[in-house]
Amino acid sequence: MDITTNQILGLLIIALIPAILAFRLGNELAK
């Protein structure tokens, strides 16, 4: 089973979205 670049990018995006949302939420709460 090959892992394609698109699959890697998709996984990175899926992993990054919650991190970005949490980061933005933290910034809002820190104000």
TrEMBL record:
Membrane topology of the entry: Single-pass membrane protein
GO cellular component, one term: photosystem I
Compartments, as annotated in UniProt: Plastid, Chloroplast thylakoid membrane
Listed transmembrane segments: 6-25
Keywords: Chloroplast, Membrane, Photosynthesis, Photosystem I, Plastid, Thylakoid, Transmembrane, Transmembrane helix
UniProt-listed Pfam families: PsaM (PF07465)
InterPro entries: PSI_PsaM, PSI_PsaM_sf
GO biological process: photosynthesis
Similarity comment: family membership: Belongs to the PsaM family.
Protein name from the UniProt record: Photosystem I reaction center subunit XII
Biological source species: Lepocinclis spirogyroides
Gene field: psaM
